[in-house]
Amino acid sequence: PRFKVDDLGGNKRLHKPPQEAGLQRASVMIGPPTLSGYTIEGDLLFTRQGRRAGDLGLIDQGYTLDLMGKKQELQLRTWASELEKSTTLPFAAEPDTWYRMKLRVDANGDQGTARGKIWKASDPEPQDWTITLEDPQVVKAGSPGVYGDSVTDLYWDDLTVRTNE
Questions:
Q1: CA R_g for the chain
Q2: What does residue 84 show for φ and ψ, rounded to 5 degrees?
Q3: pTM beyond 0.85, yes or no
Q4: Rounded to whole angstroms, how far apart are CA atoms 39 and 160?
Q5: Alpha carbon distance 118, 100 (integer Å)
Q6: Mean per-residue pLDDT for 49-67?
């Protein structure tokens, strides 16, 4: 099992520890693949060991909002193999710090917009979206989930999935 529930700071958290062998990348879906028109939100924390730091994020309807700890970037993408269709921006993230992340997808016919927010969990939610991806061929349905790729520990907490209002 790539993910498990562990105690961190006196609370139960979803944890992706480093794998001893094989790929470090993993996703866990937490709903049926027919879902659409929802927002996923949760708290995330990555750790650092030397120069190594984790990537982690949320998945909404086929889109991934990825906090890349080592690169200090935030990326919103549909397919990892077609990064030219992604949006990436610099984002200074601190290891061992809880961040709140929100990802929403809105479809309008064949087109759609994916929007992401990220902020320190101890701060109030910003009004504006941090990152946006306009997609001329929107992914119309998909499971909510979590994503992690790291040789260091990754954590998620307080995950929610809500219908878009």
A1: 15
A2: -65, -15
A3: yes
A4: 8
A5: 6
A6: 95
